[in-house]
# Entry
Amino acid sequence: MARQDGTTLIRRHTQGTDRRKAPAPAPNGVGKAGHSLASECSRVSRVLARIGDKWSVLVVMQLAEGPRRFSELKRQIGGVSQRMLTLTLRGLERDGLVTRTVYPTVPPRVDYELTALGHSLREPVEELGSWAFAHLDSIDKAQVEFDRRAADDGSPA
# Structure
């Protein structure tokens, strides 16, 4: 159903699942705290971009086991650059998912730890990781099939 403000609402059948239904938007298109539906979607999109980022997911998985120093995180998360890890940790800290504690030693020691909000993200992140591991072979097979079909018909993959 298209709305006047340009957003589109898609209703999905959820019977038989334990998903909670989102509250219906107000007739005027304004959600809680006076935010428009488009504004709410934009806010949710920013949160999902943060917690759906591969580096953020890997950081949360590592910090779920307890506080870590920057160098320890960098070692445990293969392939992340120092700059990307810094940006990821800064973003997670800004969103209230991670705390940063600086100890006045020489050289300074900095520990990162999940907040209560960050710990609440553990379960969904672990479920997502478990799903990915369980389906790696199927995804690899689908990618090979797709690439083969694309090569056969000459279209770019």
Notes: The chain has six helices and three strands. Residues 35-153 form a domain with the Arc Repressor Mutant, subunit A fold (CATH 1.10.10.10).
